[in-house]
Fold these 2 entries.
Entry 1:
Amino acid sequence: MSAPERPDRTRAAPSPRDYARPTRPPLRDRRSGPTDWSTLMTRRTRTIAIMLTAASLALAGCSASTPAEPDDSAAPTVSETTDATSAPATDESSSEPAADAPTSLMAVVGTEDDPEAYEIELTDESGATITTLPAGDYSLTFVDRSTMHNFHMTGPGDVDVRTDVPGSDESTIEITLVEGTYEYVCDPHVSNMSGSVEVTA
């Protein structure tokens, strides 16, 4: 009787495949089963992109709702507008008297009936006595027919005009009157024959 065959317990030499790294098991999505890495990364990228888009829209909405500050640098102020529209134009260089003021003055000594009368006055052409005048240029006509009186006027602006005591004088001169008080007298009779005129600007 032959002896039973003994099993061969020798192990074969391991192959290089036995040492290969085991493959990574696929991830499992709780909702739809196994999912590979590329699919998962695509979803995460899409989610991040959506979040970034939403944040950009929110920032754009905030900046659009902020009103722009007005630029007041070019707008004229109330005081500038008032000054430009309400200030009347004036011509300060003009030395002409006002329209209703006389331009011809009469320096009268005595009266028409009595040239030797103790009378002295400054009048307009109509004979009305003048006590005030606006500053300006005037023609002054002497009416001095007296042989014992004269007309002597002085005042601001170096005005100093007179007639002679003896004889008569009916000449006309040009004078410029400025703001101030002008006095006129008869030199021989200052206490009895004098007057004044106020000149305004």
Note: Residues 27-59 form one domain.
Entry 2:
Amino acid sequence: MRNWSSTTRSPTLGPRNARLVIDYVVHYRKANGSLSPKVFKLTSRDLLPGERRSGVRRHPLRPLSTRRYHPGAHRVQLQITGRPYKSCAFTLHIPPEATFG
């Protein structure tokens, strides 16, 4: 997966800080074609009212004994304090000679 980036703005417009728990969800393609979500922790941040934060995350897709990768469309999604936000699709191409799982 290539790097993906996101910008987050504090949902607080009043005088109080907002405590955000930021995760990302990778929706992996299963053998039957459905998607299975896996949540990965990013960070917890305190944002001032109106403050913006941006960041870039790289997620490796390397062979693991606990996960089998399947070619096709997958999705990555931002989740802030348990609430899912925009997602974007990416396509995983696996050469026939590769052993992924």
Note: The mean pLDDT is 83.
